[in-house]
Predict the structure.
Amino acid sequence: MFEQAFKNIDDVLWKDAGCTSELDYTEQTSWLLFLKYLDALENDKATGPNTIEYKIGEIFGEIKNRIQSGYNLREIIDHIDELRFQSQNEKHELSHLYEAKIKNMGNAGRNGGEYYTPRPLIRAIVAVTAPKLGETICDPAVGSAGFLCES
């Protein structure tokens, strides 16, 4: 489900004059995905001060929308709106696809994807630390949430 949505979104961005590289595709897709995720989170929980909304706003506050066509933006939002983050399998799939986008950023220039941690390394670190159910796990860089998903 996610893989086809990502392909559809990339196809739309390819047509948009404001998005010229994989780095642009990843940046534009990322902030829209997080908005979608945040919307789903708001539906699950009541919001208040010092919430995740503020933190997400701080993270993505500097991103400039490069999608010039309102029609393309609407089409991308429609693709993203079809995605769900309910099951562990869906979250794992999203994490893997997001890692692939981050990895591709390194190939797109502009120093993108420099801090990508390959999944085999994540698995090795998780295996060594052997987290147990009920323990607190911290992944401060979070990126694709690979450490959290593998834990």
User: Anything to note?
Assistant: Residues 24 and 77 are 16 Å apart (CA to CA). The radius of gyration is 16 Å. The chain has a mean pLDDT of 82.
